[in-house]
Amino acid sequence: MRLPGSLLLASCLLVGCVVPPPPSQPPVASSSSALRPGGAAESRIFDLINAERQHQGLAALTYNPRLDRMAKIQAQNMARFQKMAHVLPEAELPTLVSRAQYVGYPFGRIAENVALGYPSAETVVQGWMASKGHRTNILNPDVGETGIAIARSSAGGLYYCQVFGRQLQSL
């Protein structure tokens, strides 16, 4: 069954996912300001997210390869199953916690933003910033690390995942 676009958008926003509105103008191509693991678009998202945090007086996030691996696992699974979700019961690592355990990330805090269909780093960050739950994750002062991934499905859809974390501190 196909849902009307407005119903699909409403259902995705309720579960903390973001689908872009129809584009009103062609996207502007972006360039990466620095090379980071994951590629130019992921690097651009990293820079844009840190700019948003710094604009709010928050410390910049640092790149964490384990969080990056978690984001890659989720983005690739969403693309494989052509399903945007935080939990994918059909995947080997269906939840954020299962992915954290798999990569060995001892978290004190952990959160995830996902999105589907945005044409550029700029538009996905704009979408996340326009969504209360995603904005909260981005501007959370209790996280300090991140990993970012983008995967393309066989149908061509772009699936985005950003994981935020703070490692558990020893007592």
Tell me what the structure shows.
- The protein is of the alpha/beta class.
- The protein is built from 6 helices and 5 strands.
- The protein has helices at residues 5-14, 40-55, 65-81, 96-103, 121-129, 132-138, and strands spanning 17-18, 62-63, 107-116, 145-152, 158-167.
- Strands 1-3-5-4-2 form a 5-stranded mixed sheet, sandwiched between helices.
- The N and C termini lie far apart (51 Å).
**Approximate shape:** globular
Radius of gyration: 15 Å
Number of β-strand runs: 5
String of helices and strands = HEHEHHEHHEE
Q: Average pLDDT value?
A: 83
Low-confidence stretches: 1-37
Query: What does the oligomeric state look like here?
Result: single chain
Helix content: 25-40%
β-sheet strand percentage: 15-25%
Report strand order across the widest sheet. 1-3-5-4-2
Task: Compose a concise summary of this entry.
By secondary structure, the protein is of the alpha/beta class.
Keywords:
171 residues; single chain; 19% strand; 6 helices; alpha/beta
Record the SSE blueprint.
Elements (H helix, E strand, L loop, with lengths): L4 H10 L2 E2 L21 H16 L6 E2 L1 H17 L14 H8 L3 E10 L4 H9 L2 H7 L6 E8 L5 E10 L4
Parallel strand pairs: 1-3, 2-4
Antiparallel strand pairs: 3-5, 4-5
Helix pairs in contact: 2-5, 3-4
